[in-house]
Amino acid sequence: MDSTIVVASYASIGNELKQLSKVSWVATGYMLTLTSFQPLYGKLSDIFGRKSCLIMAYIIFGLGSLLCGLSRTMDQLIWARALAGIGGGGMSTVVSIILSDIVPLRSRGVWQGVINIVFASGSSVGAPLGGFLADTIGWRWAFLVQFPAVMLAIISVSFALDLPAVEKTDFKIKIKRVDFAGAASLVTCIFFLLFGLDNGGNMSWTDEATVGSLIASAITFFVFGAIEMEWAKEPFAPKRIVLNKSLIASYLVNFFSVASNLSMLFHVSLYLQAVKGLSPSRVGFWLVPGIIGGVTGSLGSGLIMKATGKYYWLTVLEYMLLVGGSITIVSSAGIVINSVIAISIGLVVSGLGNGGGITSSLISLISNGGQKDQAIATAVSYLFRSLGSVVGLSIGSTILQDVLRSVLRQRLTGQDINEIVRRVRESLDYLNELDHATRTIVLGAYEVAIQKTMWFSFSMGICALVASFFINEVPLNRR
């Protein structure tokens, strides 16, 4: 529910806080910490136990969501969302690890589909609910409403989840096993990357802060690699997993497909609000079919793998659907036709492909990685998914801001160009203050900018399709 309830509220958040150009950082800040901590949870769950890690993740996420709802500035909201991301990383990763612990591999895809039905139920409710709350009592409740839900989850896990007891060891010894250096270097690397991309899109690609951040990101990436490959005693992204030839294709598929899907979803939402003038609640309504397509693809993929014991050609077909859905969306957003219905159909098709592909590629990872390393392999797969989310959303938003600013400067005339460009990038509400001719120019600029980001999302889908051809198939046994 969290992902869609917030997506449907982005424009409203930017409008109220008068910083629409920074609103993507609400998602990016969350994905920054989620990305950095997801792979760490694989090792943490081996050290401290699955149940303890899951409960702690819920607590951190709940606290972050509460602080989001109480935020008064965009910076406060971004920091609170980043805190929630630390918990969000564990919620998804640890649940997947627990499922792999207790379910036979051949049936794993089916159960992933069942989990995704629960996920989609929350997502389907989240999109219209987020829009409704933004239209009525305010976007803050899109965050506050999650706090009691998290408390219920903590109670349920505490009393209903029965797992084998973890070997009792001194807490200090356990803490020493945690790869804090790797986690810190990864957070730093991703932060500099995102800051550089954001600053380049909003300011200048030759700006000292932009260049310095991108260089710092490259340096800290090599530091992270050295820590994980050579120095850490118990790395959360070990060489035998990250550089395993049988796993690399699946990791790349995860990276590119999630980059494509999330970037497309975010900018379709913005397109429907900025260009089509739909309310947040109506936007949420049009996003629901794509979510349903995703869960249908996931469950269908699981059932096919259980029946056949194979996943290679299934995965390739699924990413063909992702590409087909993406080109349908782009074509329907003013390139060939203007149709919200066609965009929604494209979301369904791409959702079918992405949902199924994520499930089948996960089975590929687990089958190639082996039972001993399944927790770490699963956690690293979530790292690549989250990196895809962060990079996809960040680059997409950078393209949007860069193209929007450039097109507005080309098409607008008069002494107020800089002021109009600044305010248009801060709030969609400002469009209502413009005269008809200027408003038409601005809407056209938004359409062009969003179309460019959609082409980027499409290109990421193509990369996912290419990577899927290199997946290594291991027949799934019936145990």
Automatic annotation (TrEMBL):
Membrane topology: Multi-pass membrane protein
TM ranges: 23-41, 53-72, 78-98, 110-129, 141-166, 178-197, 209-227, 248-272, 284-304, 311-335, 341-363, 453-471
Sorted UniProt keywords: Membrane, Transmembrane, Transmembrane helix, Transport
Protein location: Endomembrane system
Gene3D superfamilies: MFS general substrate transporter like domains, Multidrug resistance protein D
Statement: the UniProt record of this protein carries the keyword Transport: yes
Superkingdom as given in the UniProt entry: Eukaryota
Domain spans labelled Major facilitator superfamily (MFS) profile: 1-475
InterPro entries noted in UniProt: MFS, MFS_dom, MFS_trans_sf
Pfam families named among the record's database cross-references: MFS_1
Molecular function as annotated in GO: basic amino acid transmembrane transporter activity
PROSITE patterns: MFS
The keyword Repressor appears for this protein: no
Name recorded for this polypeptide: MFS general substrate transporter
Species of origin: Lentinula aciculospora
Lineage: Eukaryota, Fungi, Dikarya, Basidiomycota, Agaricomycotina
